[in-house]
Amino acid sequence: MIDFTPQQLYSVGKSMEEVFWLPIDPKLFNIASELQDVKLKQCVSETYCLPETPKVVYGLRGSTADIYLDNAAYREFLFKAFNVSTVDEESAAIVMTSLSNGVPCIVFRGVSDYAGGEGLLSSTRLTYLAAVNALSVAVEFIGLFGEEAPRPLKVDHLRLEKNC
Questions:
Q1: What confidence tens digit (pLDDT) does each residue in 101-140 have?
Q2: Which residues form a coiled coil (predicted)?
Q3: Could you say which architecture CATH assigns to the domain 7-148?
């Protein structure tokens, strides 16, 4: 049985609120719309590249669940019923914590696999590429704040170790 249930959101100085969707700060969301043309990396190495150029997708919903989704039919259902483009295991916890404490937030996801799809590339290598691309978008986002924000880090290379 599939169950979609609202969650209880507790915020300082407010009554408990039942929420199904966790809102992202509208100002941050509007600023993020300027990132649609950010160039993303297509290759993990000189010989290991995605078949298509990756892109920043703006305006779809993400979902968080305690599952690893590897089912094309369920992926299509989530998209058609809820306009959900990604499923992860942690974004909602970050957003809920931010909302509870009155801190504006936004989530950038690097998508590394296609639930239920037959991938040409291994998920392990795509995870690295997705992380690098998500970081690049986040750095560009911070840069949009100009002088009022901390200087963004220049990221030329990110090395992820299997055993950290």
A1: 999 999 888 877 666 565 555 567 778 888 899 999 999 9
A2: none
A3: 3-Layer(aba) Sandwich (3.40)
